[in-house]
Amino acid sequence: MASLIVIPTYNEVENLKPILEAVLGVTPETVHVLVTDDGSPDGTGKLADEIAAKNPRVHVLHRSKKEGLGPAYIAGFRWGFEHGYDQLIEMDADFSHNPKYLPTMLQLLGQYDFVIGSRNVAGGGTVNWGLSRKIISRGGSLYARTILSAPIRDFTGGFNGWNRKVLEGIDLDTLEAGGYSFQIELKYRAFKKKFTFKEFPIIFEDRRVGHSKMSSKIVVEALSLVPRLRFKA
Does residue 102 register a pLDDT over 90? Predict the structure, then answer.
């Protein structure tokens, strides 16, 4: 079964080579990586091309401008569909999602329709986070879980694996969210379609290099999206 790890990038030139080496080092040859670069001005896309030219397991999708996390992932998923991948995994480029968890995620994807690397189940957690960020993250998941009446502990996390049938069944063309609330919408749509899922514990570490792309605009988008999803349901 062919698997594709989709890694969106914007100004991740310092992280790119180490994260690709780490990912490829813990996964079998059947697992490939797609770097989806949104026209990074720091040369991330160029470096991705250089790495891909030397390694057939690495692919690059160039996008002309930064449009948000949701569109970047959707473009990566569609590329995966076109190239025949059966499983698609979302993953950050900054080591906040530790590659050591990938073998577990791949194993669980053989048993469940979608899998969530969760900070909010027993054994999971965060490292080097301030109080405000913890409140936003846990509060956001609690808010979504309560309003949407869905038993997902980590609604906002971005380390997730999907069997192809789930993403095709959701109808990606109808997704509304562009920022981090994309993760909430994707999981809720899959839950409402009655796809099976499993949350397994991960420790989420703050990025090693660069700056977080979280903003107040992203938080507001998530707060406003959740009631709309429930109303439509």
Answer: yes
